[in-house]
Every structure is written in C-alpha cells, then in structure tokens.
C-alpha cells in the first residue's frame, strides 16, 4: 500500500479557485468535436497542436473527431517562466509535414494577448493551407492586444493566471484535471 501522499492534492493547495471543473471541460470538448465534425463533414483535417499547453485538450478533442485526421505539433515559447507575455515568439519545434492544400486547425490552450496566435497564423498562411482555422480551449478576451480570428472557443476566462488541463506555471500544474486560478502568492 502506498504511504506517501499523491502529488495532486498538494498542487491543489496552490489553487485559489476552480474556474472550470472536469465535467464542464468534458462536455465542452465533446461539443467542440461535434462542431468540427459538422463543419468539415466529407473533408480531411490536419490538427496542429501547440505544445505543450494544448496536450491534454488535443488528446480529448481528437477522440471526438470522426473525420480522417492527421496530427502535427508546433512548440513555441513566448513567456519564459513568468506570467506576462514577452511579445517575442520563438519556434522551438516546427511541423514535420507540409500543410499545403490541407485543412488545418490550430489547437491552442489559451489566447491571451493574441501575439502567439498572430505570429503562428502569419507563418502558416505563407505555407498555403487550403483552409486555416483556430480552436482554443480558453479565451482571455479582456487581455487581447492583437485582433486574431478564432473559430472555436471552449470557454472565455477572466483576466487571471490559470493553470491545469495542460496549462502551466513554470512547467508545473499541467496535470491538474481542471482549470484553476493560481494563488497570486505563488508567482508574486
Ligand atoms: P499570448 O501570446 O499572450 O496570446 O499568450 C499565449 C500563450 O501564453 C498561451 O498559449 C499560453 O502558453 C500562455 N498563457 C497565457 N495566459 C496564460 C495563463 O493564464 N496560464 C497559463 N499560460 C498562459
Ligand atoms: Mg501555449
């Protein structure tokens, strides 16, 4: 019998408030999958997940996509370990495949200032996909600095630093099964 405490309850101590619980995420992700199935009926899609934050969202979303589907990954860095966007986007890992003439759906964890997505959209448009859409789990709309087109939004969230379900603070908290607001004393 394990005698040590599992890590998740101690991580939960750093959460001020659960914004979106597991059941709410599950239901909304299924709805997003159904919308994609409807909009792309009869087509093939290429989902481009933005690492690492979109990892859990991608894994759950793709289970609801009932279309011929390929997945590729982009890894970007715009934050370092802080909570404010540096405004500088770096590609840490580019795509493996060409996106030319394909129906591309970018899957993101959260759109905040919009800088990361704006950069990615510009970069991917130059590669001539047939179509280019955006699906984000979270939209922190009040913080937008650049107007970016978003086709599918899971939830709108207030201007607070959130973690869990793939989202991190300094690489921690990604494994939490819910979206929570981090206690300000953790990063202040
Ligand atoms: P943007 O370029 O300001 O739109 O920021 C986009 C990226 O910043 C997201 O893909 C996240 O990786 C990160 N980010 C923004 N807000 C949060 C947050 O509240 N929690 C965790 N990561 C965030
Ligand atoms: Mg991200």
Task: Briefly summarize what is shown.
Helices cover 25% and strands 29% of the residues. It has 5 helices and 9 strands.
How would you describe the overall organization of this protein?
This protein has helices at 7-12, 22-39, 55-62, 115-125, 184-187; strands spanning 15-20, 45-51, 69-77, 90-93, 103-111, 131-139, 152-156, 162-163, 179-182. It has 188 residues and is α/β, with parallel strands linked by helices. The chain has one domain: Rossmann fold (3-Layer(aba) Sandwich). It has a six-stranded mixed sheet with strand order 4-3-2-5-6-7, with helices on both faces. The chain has a three-stranded antiparallel sheet with strand order 1-9-8. The longest helix is centred in the N-terminal third of the chain and has 18 residues, at 22-39. Bound molecules: inosinic acid (IMP) and magnesium ion. Inosinic acid binds at residues 53, 78-79, 85, 108-117, 140, 161-163, 167. Inosinic acid binds next to strand 5, helix 4 and strand 8.
Task: Record keyword descriptors for this entry.
188 residues, alpha/beta, Rossmann fold, six-stranded mixed sheet, 5 helices, 25% helix, binds inosinic acid
Write the layout of secondary structure elements.
Blueprint: H1 7-12, E1 15-20, H2 22-39, E2 45-51, H3 55-62, E3 69-77, E4 90-93, E5 103-111, H4 115-125, E6 131-139, E7 152-156, E8 162-163, E9 179-182, H5 184-187
Parallel strand pairs: 2-3, 2-5, 5-6, 6-7
Antiparallel strand pairs: 1-9, 3-4, 8-9
This protein binds inosinic acid and magnesium ion (MG).
